[in-house]
Amino acid sequence: MKKLFTSIAFIYSISVNSQSTLPNISLNSLDGNEINIQAISDNDKIAVVSLWATWCVPCIKELDAISEYYEEWKEEVNFDLYAISTDDSRTIKRVNAMVNGKGWEYTILLDSNNELQRALGASTIPLTLIVKNNKIVYRHSGYSAGVEFELFDKIKELK
Amino acid sequence: MNKILFFISLIFSLTTVSQNNENIFGSFESNSQLLQDDNTLNFTSPDDNFRANNYFQLNYNIGNISTGIQYESYLPSAMLGYYPQYNGENGIASYFMNIKRNKFDITLGYFYGQFGNGLIFRSWENRQLGINNAIKGIKFKYKFSESFNLTTIYGQQRNGFELNESTIKGVDSNLNLNKFLNFEKTDLTIGASYVGRYQNNSTNDLIPANVKSLGARVDLYSGRFSLNLEGIIKDSDVIANEGVILSNKLYDGTALQLDLGYSKKGLGLNTTFRRLENFNFYSDRLAEGNIYNQQTISYTPALTKQQDYLLTNIYVYSAQPRLVINALENRSGEVGSQTDFYYTFKKDSFLGKYKSKIAVNFSYWAAIESNFNQDQSYDVEFIGDGNRYYRDFNFELKNRWNNKFNTTITMLDVIIDKGVALGGPLGVQGDIKAKVGVIEGTYRYENGKSSRAVIQHLWTKDDKKNWAGLVYEYNFSTSLNVFIADGWNYGGADKIHYYNFGGSYSKDNMRLSLNYGRQRGGLICVGGVCRYVPENTGLNLNLNLVF
Lengths: 159, 547
What we know:
The structure holds two protein chains of two kinds. Chain A is α/β, with parallel strands linked by helices. Chain A has a single domain, classed as Glutaredoxin, CATH 3.40.30. Chain A has five helices and seven strands. Chain A has helices spanning 2-16, 57-76, 92-101, 115-119, 147-158, and strands spanning 26-29, 34-36, 46-52, 79-85, 107-110, 127-132, 135-141. In chain A, strand 6 and strand 7 (135-141) form a beta hairpin. Chain A starts with a helix and ends with a helix. Helix content of chain B is 4%, strand content 57%. In chain B, the strands form seven sheets. Chain B has a 24-stranded antiparallel beta barrel. Chain B has a two-stranded antiparallel ribbon with strand order 6-7. Chains A and B meet through helix 1, helix 2, helix 3, helix 4 and strand 7 of A and helix 1, strand 1, strand 2, strand 19 and strand 20 of B.
């Protein structure tokens, strides 16, 4: 009986409610400020969230590719990219050097305890999301050349 | 367990009533393999040739409360090279409830966490490595002010689907001094931590039941400069080897890490020095040095650059923090450093009109010079001139030639101790010296279609001699790709081709990948922590769903 109840409640609740929002988690930025990720896309702001790490080659490819067009795109549509580093304590010291060395203009947040990564069920990175009013409207994992243009097309649709 | 399910289902059922400020989400991950005999590799498939690791995770949040549960199954067996304790097991592996209010953050059940650099304490999950050393108990974080916070932990560590009998307790504090020193552009934080383990010593009073580590650290960021220093001392404890305590003699341990950074737009420099002397901390004293990275409290990964190509990750370093005193070898730990340099060229440099990027990394790791005495004690230098374990110089140059085409060139020059690379005692079997060159090109067509090709070569006169490698990947769209790859050990006695082919499909909340081929035996590393995978041949399927 309990099992039956469990299954029914489970299936019902999932069909009604799926992970369409970002969880209530605060992350530190590189300069030590705490930012609640539910706030990054409030008031119709468009936020791109990209989970990456200094040791993740496809992640860096994606962020390098976007950085080529970032300024140009931001002139066209008002959005911000939050590059959320899942680096652990070992590699986190590299984040600053890499971000600056690569000339990335993104807002960098640190998910060093992988709290957000776990909550998003992202067993592999890169994971890229577009969020507006805290609703996840686009989700993509992995990187292949050109996915950055697909991303920007989706951003333009939300304008 | 039924109670937990019932409790959670009750919460779920309530969510269907109202949906404000609450959500349910979860994920399902399945990694499976079907192994087959391969005479060329001398690989005989085990009887249970279908193996699968599955993870099902469900979370429910309402307001400031979040809860979650994770089910894991390793049926009929865990994948090759995973911790054998998982074989044939399944069940609820972890669950938690977390409440966040203004100043406090409390977690009941299984929790993860880390103090400082993680040297003194880190509990974490990595499914690729088969690591989940969550602690079951209570974690309590209290923010006294914007400048000062304190975290306490208490509980027992997970070991497979069970808990270790020892109890772990810890305190971590961070104090930001900016306010007190009126710093505006400088950020200075100091921290201190304590981690203790109580483990019954049954009848042997010579073995300490309580062992603790104490640590202190300083983190300083000032404009373009940064400095991070952390030091840990660990109480004297017995040392174990392969689950056996060899003597009642006690040894203390220390860890020291210094990071220095300088960066400005377009240029980043970071250098790390680390010294680990007998620095290992496990929730079971007998688990010391286990090859599956289980039951760890301290976190001491290799500090080298992680490579991702077929041939660049054959000779990889794993950290050597252990004190080992036996007939075969004597060593007391590891000391060394690594440096990263990143630079972005301006537009229209001699490398083309787009911004070229360069990354250089150098690392050197060696034994701490030590003299071992008859009575199993040892005298140790701070650095000295111990056996070299690893030396790596590598650089990477990324170039975009036009809107469609970009290349990456990677070069590696590695020297690795044979014991580190292949097993056996360290520092006595000689070195492997290898050079690797990789050229990768990516061409983008319209509509998300693209081609990626990688050619690579490894030169060495040692071990299995030369290798050549080739990868070709075609993306039909940004969601669907196929690839073929071959790592050919043409210099080796058997001239083995480690071929692989497969593809992946990724769309919205789903990712599916399938590949067939030969797995080269060796270390698979994620973020400096490595797992040994035996050579095998077969079909691999990975599925990841989020909802």
